[in-house]
Amino acid sequence: MFLCVSLNPAIDKRLCLDRLQPHLVDIFRKARETGLTTSLDTNDDPEGRWSADIHLVLPHLDILLLNERELRQLTREKDVDKAAGTLSQQVRVVVVKRGSHGAIAFAGQTKYTTAPLVVDVVDSIGAGDSFDAGFIHQFTRARNIEECFRFANVAGALSVSRAGGTEAFRDGKHRDAFLQKHAAGMS
Questions:
Q1: pTM of the predicted model, to two decimals?
Q2: Over residues 85-93, mean pLDDT
Q3: Annotated catalytic residue: which of 41, 129, 132, 176?
């Protein structure tokens, strides 16, 4: 079991996140105490404020997922490796999504890199969330980082192969053909 929170700015912040935010540290702490795997995708802070409260959540995370821009804004550090390395001192695994440049992860002092699958991109909406889901899916099955990346890359690439973020997953024929081509031997 795992707890995954995505701080999506598309949701009316005043109704949801502002009420949830004061409780995030307790939610994540209690989840970890009960043995759940915890992950957080920060998404963007459109106002650029990046509340210091997020740093209080970090020690209670197994996985922190963000893109390069979010990483730089959160840490106020321009160097991606240095920023991710610093966060990995508090979080078990820090995953930085880099779009067409792949992704990096820091687990403790160890850096992992992956290149993305090369596919025709129809719509990039949902690619990051699909990548996250693939990574978490494998992580919760005690797979190593390389296996987590492989599954994450396939999920993200499948997502971009149709418009709308989830349509590629719904189209069974398309999904099965894509997986046959790109995910041989994955479980």
A1: 0.87
A2: 95
A3: 129
